Amino acid sequence: MLKTAVISVSLFYLSCYLFDVFLLGDVTFIGGVLRFGVILPLTLGLLIYLGRDNPIQHKEVAAIGVALAANIVWCVILLSSNSPSVLSYFYAAPTFQMAITLAAASPFRPALRASIFTFCLNYSAIFFLEGVTIGYVMQHLVVYMPTVVMTLLVSHHLDVEARMGYLRAAENEALKRELSRQNKDLARLSVTDPLTRLSNRRGTDLELLRLRNETPELAESALLFIIDVDHFKAFNDGYGHGAGDMALKRLARAMRRALPIDAHLARHGGEEFIAVLAGHPPEETHRIAEDLRRAVRQLDIPHELTQDRNRHVTISIGAASGSMATTRDFDDLMERADRALYAAKADGRNTWRVNEDKSETGQSESPGERAGEPHSGGSIETTEAEPQRDVA
């Protein structure tokens, strides 16, 4: 906008050389030299300066400076003439006022200072014009002063509007950033369990969708663990829900540390958790399950209400391996891991079972280890694991 204003005012100013020729024939040469030899190069230099990466305030001041120089040159041209038409021509002085306050579109304060300078310049030169009288000066002021006042009022209005527009834009931008932040927080909260800070069921659904879309080859080979806290209702009833919440937080942190960094761990509901590991071979299932069981047992959270030999908070784990490339595949994997979890519960808890394969005639669970008991190895062809004693 500033460049456009400068070009428009400069073309008008240079075209006024025709008035010099027709009205002031005795200063044609000096008018041409000053307008085209001084102001035109200044204008071209100003346009180059405006095209560079300079602060807009500096550009505005430079534009006002060139306008003031043009006013000075015009006064010199008129003072050099002896033509009677000078007095009529001098009524064009308000145009410089308008150029400075409106065309340059500068802020109000610089425009006000430039207007005062222009006023002082013009009314210092007016007394040296050929044939000037006090009556002419007063008549000129009658024309000039309303122009000064009106252009300054318009300049102030434009400046206020520009500032208000900037503040509105800044406020809107701040509101957009705040809304974006809140949307991100809401999106994060919608997939996060508020107690354990793990993913919830919706978070698991989104993670499965991401894996299927971004890394479908990893979704073809996955491990799934369903983890249930043993006797947790009795713990809540006996120690209080505050202690129960604290225990779940500690369990979540311990299991998160025990799992590989690429594992997805989520609170599936109540005291049940699930862990999904995409792209891991079935051979890792036993080790990861035991790492989870051991990490929780080593917390040594007392639980005297278990009604069995385990006197600490423990977990039972059901695991399965296979594809989760589709929703049906994942539901099947969940069902197999759930059956393995029931087998671990039936075997006295604080243990794990792995559903290693699926067939039409039955399933195969691999027995897990409880604290102090070695892994027996191999598999057993039953849905209920043979009871084992916990010596922990």
What does this structure look like?
One of its GO terms (cellular component) is plasma membrane. This is diguanylate cyclase. Residues 220-357 form the GGDEF domain. This protein has 392 residues and is α+β, with helices and mostly antiparallel strands. The chain folds into 2 domains: 2-166, no CATH class; 201-367, Alpha-Beta Plaits, CATH 3.30.70. 60% of the residues lie in helices and 10% in strands. It has helices spanning 2-15, 17-23, 28-51, 56-79, 86-89, 94-103, 108-125, 134-190, 201-214, 216-219, 232-239, 241-258, 285-297, 327-346, and strands at 222-229, 264-269, 272-278, 315-322, 352-358, 363-367. Helix 1 (2-15) packs antiparallel against helix 3, helix 6 runs antiparallel to helix 7 and helix 7 (108-125) runs antiparallel to helix 8. The chain is rod-shaped and about 120 Å long.
H-E order: HHHHHHHHHHEHHEEHEHEE
Give the count of helical stretches: 14
Q: List low-confidence stretches.
A: 359-363, 370-392
How many strands appear in the DSSP assignment?
A: 6
The strand order across the widest sheet is: 2-3-1-4-5-6
Q: What does the main sheet amount to?
A: 6 strands, mixed
* Average pLDDT score: 84
Strand content: 5-15%
CATH architecture of the largest domain: 2-Layer Sandwich
CATH class of the largest domain: Alpha Beta
State the separation between the terminal residues, measured CA to CA.
Answer: 82 Å
